[in-house]
């Protein structure tokens, strides 16, 4: 190794063709690095069509634990001639570009290492079937990476064996392709790359998981038995994972499946079915993305006004309209906070990684039941579809699920008069019943029109206003019982702070470290729920300016903080990002530094503290 070799801090990227079978090989590399004890962040950047367009897969390796996406590629495996120019341009000076040199190519870069491997020719020499030739190209470049960057060949072989254990006939040819790439690189390439992987111990107690799988599993542990959906990118795999885990974990002793997964004809039907199942006593949910939320709005308003528990998973993507279905954004914040017409305010949960997708999924069902209202779990494509390294999931078997104020038959027998929408306890939350609980007590009419506290129809504006105020009061009361913001006081004297939520957190935390190194020390708050807790207002009060970082054009969270937390607009500096890519620390740093130059008294400060 060269004395200048950098170990375990690099970005490896694959430029391939959508539909070429490269996805499994690329993910295999991420899993190998993870099993070598290295924290990895894997980002799948793919088109919304089925086949033929360029697709990319980025793996950031950081033993220091920096898991945000990073601009600049150290090792590029370029397998798509259509994107050669773009791929070569992304390689940092001193980095390496690996390509299929069956057809020699010229790359107009003299500051990078260009490594040619005749991948197609090697495949043609060993396989006659055209599909096999295409698929095994991917395994050949994985094999070459064993030699070139130090992937552990024993770990690669073990993972291949595990991957094809249900199809054992595929193990040998995949290992053959792997060894072809490894041996060719060993025998023909003497280039020493500037970066390399070596085994470490930084992933002990960690797992790799997508947010959609974690959320689906969380719904299962929450006791959900009904999932209704209409397929839409990027939420589809959430329900698929719920169904997959239910088939293993939700079987009765006689083998029957104690769960129902219904694919509806459209999003409106899907949410309507979920509302009906929840009204009937089941824990039910639906999963969708922004376009689906728009279509569901009418029924969401019904659940809000009729006070029916409902959990909705919104895995956000680029909009508006069809927008960018396979790119990430956080652009449904205002839509979900106020979904439906009329006066509505909804509870939002804002997970920051797949681990929180699991825990907040369980919490969402408890909150929906306790407050008898829709609850949105606001994930996004980056969290939902990409693999994150997180702590192992844990579950407390003593935890009791909170079904809220549901009267059983004995309790109904003691009630002189059951009034479905009456505030008995002064907390705005009425008591409810489940159909069939009692032979002659507890029935009521569920309607979306204005109603009395017994469920009767009314056009009395005073009663209607009282109902709306009571619902508002109970939703506001939920704030104290939702996930608290994560607050990091990095300097008690700092008067500037960064506020963010969701998947932007790794980039924000790394960006804060970079700003620290330049003398700009700032505090940090990650929002995790709406309505906002008192801690959010207190944090804002303690600072002069808050940089609100979010992935949408219109700074929607900033508007929500302004409107619902009564934070002066002069304090809130919007930091919007809308390119559809996972946020980078460089973006955070550069935007904040530019903004600082415009703030009186802060631009030249070596340490951002009280002036």
Structure description:
This protein has 611 residues and is α/β, with parallel strands linked by helices. It is built from 19 helices and 22 strands. A seven-stranded mixed beta sheet has the order 11-10-12-13-15-14-20, with helices on both faces. Strands 3-4-2-5-6-7 form a six-stranded mixed beta sheet. Strand 21, helix 18 (556-564) and strand 22 (572-576) form a beta-alpha-beta unit. Helix 7 packs parallel to helix 12, helix 9 (267-279) runs parallel beside helix 10 and helix 16 (505-517) crosses helix 19. Residues 218-380 form the Pyruvate flavodoxin/ferredoxin oxidoreductase pyrimidine binding domain. Pfam families: POR, POR_N.
Overall 3D form = globular
> Number of helical segments?
19
Helicity range of the residues? 25-40%
SSE-based structural type? alpha/beta
Poorly predicted ranges: 605-611
Got a strand count? 22
Q: What number is the mean pLDDT?
A: 95
Biggest pleated-sheet summary:
7 strands, mixed
Q: What is the terminal separation in angstroms?
A: 50 Å
Pfam family, one: POR
Domain Pyruvate/ketoisovalerate oxidoreductase catalytic: 19-182
Keywords: Oxidoreductase
Domain Pyruvate flavodoxin/ferredoxin oxidoreductase pyrimidine binding: 218-380
